[in-house]
Specification:
Blueprint lengths: L6 E3 L5 H7 L4 E3 H4 L7 E6 L5 H12 L6 E6 L11 H7 E2 L1 H4 L4 E6 L15 H14 E7 L1 H11 L4 E15 L13 E11 L2 H6 L3 E7 L3 E7 L4 E4 L9 H11 L25 H17 L22
Parallel strand pairs: 1-2, 1-4, 3-4, 3-6, 4-5, 6-7, 7-12
Antiparallel strand pairs: 8-9, 8-10, 10-11, 11-12
Helix pairs in contact: 1-3, 6-7
């Protein structure tokens, strides 16, 4: 019987115990050293404040594939984090200098709580641009999430987001706008996905750009999944990695900070924050990451990562 292959993570990473309790197969570096297999090497640039929570969310999705995945965690700077201990950061995260000479099969860049700040005013904007440029030469495929998707579309294509008057938070219905793409295999015609952001891309500008293809969209939340013409970059405007209580935690955090947030849409039972939320996007999130990792990373990446020139665009690849 075929089993899901594990995600390889550093020994003692806090996410290990959580994922093992959920029967998600993870493997320590020590155990993986005895495996004779070419795993997918995936780098995660984690820009979210609570590093451990985001690590666990993404590793949960990566662990639901039939591929073995080696994960490196990357930080944007070495400044002390308000929400994650310095010991955790020093033990498990790497600086860009330490990995910039390497090639990776995949890269995931997370969202960031920077939705109301102009890109050029972000303290590490130059570093973000450097990593995005590096990824176009050293990574087979890049998955940009939420703020990172907006930042990359701005840097790579010159398309800027539009700030919203209020935060767009909730779970929204989306439709497929493309057919027969590997990334959408198994997707229903309509599906739900969570959003949490202060800005939105102009969907007409995205559709008009010759280097981009809008794959899924929402009447309420706009473009959701956008793919570059060479299949190297996937821009996801929401948060497929979010767990059941993530939007709830954000809502009550903002409420406690006196920000007067609106109640996340289509999320709490009866739209009542005193009632439990309903998670209705897990299947979509898992399928999105699995399809990305299989069709746009594993099927296209060279066996020898030193030869990035061997990457074949999806349109030319001979895949099942």
């Amino acid at each position: 019987m075929r089993r899901c292959m594990p995600v390889k993570i550093p020994d003692n990473l806090p996410a290990a115990g959580i994922l093992e309790s959920e029967n998600i197969f993870v493997m320590s570096e020590t155990r993986a050293a005895n495996q004779d297999i070419r795993p997918m090497k995936v780098l995660i640039l984690n820009l979210m404040p609570n590093k451990i929570e985001t690590e666990t969310q993404l590793l949960r999705l990566l662990g639901n594939t039939p591929l073995q995945v080696d994960v490196d965690l990357l930080r944007i700077h070495d400044k002390e984090s308000k929400h994650t201990s310095i010991d955790h950061m020093n033990n498990f995260y790497r600086d860009f200098k330490a990995i910039s000479h390497k090639n990776y099969d995949g890269l995931i860049i997370t969202g960031a709580p920077l939705g109301q700040i102009e890109f050029e005013e972000v303290t590490y904007w130059d570093h973000i641009r450097e990593i995005i440029d590096w990824s176009q030469r050293h990574v087979t495929s890049v998955l940009f999430l939420c703020w990172a998707a907006h930042a990359a579309l701005y840097h790579l294509y010159g398309l800027n987001r539009k700030l919203l008057k209020t935060k767009r938070a909730g779970v929204f219905l989306h439709q497929r706008t493309s057919q027969h793409l590997p990334l959408l295999r198994g997707f229903d015609d309509e599906f739900l996905a969570p959003h949490s952001r202060f800005a939105q891309m102009d969907i007409d500008e995205l559709k008009a750009h010759p280097g981009l293809q809008v794959l899924t969209e929402s009447d309420e939340a706009g473009a959701y999944m956008v793919l570059s013409s060479n299949s190297r970059n996937l821009f996801v405007m929401g948060h497929p990695e979010y767990q059941k209580l993530t939007l709830k935690d954000e809502y009550f955090r903002d409420l406690g900070a006196g920000l007067k947030p609106e109640i996340p849409q289509n999320y709490f039972r009866n739209d009542d924050p005193e009632q439990e939320p309903v998670a209705r996007w897990y299947g979509h999130g898992s399928l999105l990451v699995s399809n990305w990792l299989n069709y746009y990373v594993y099927q296209l990446t060279p066996y020898n990562l030193d030869d990035m020139s061997a990457i074949t665009p999806w349109e030319e690849a001979e895949l099942p």
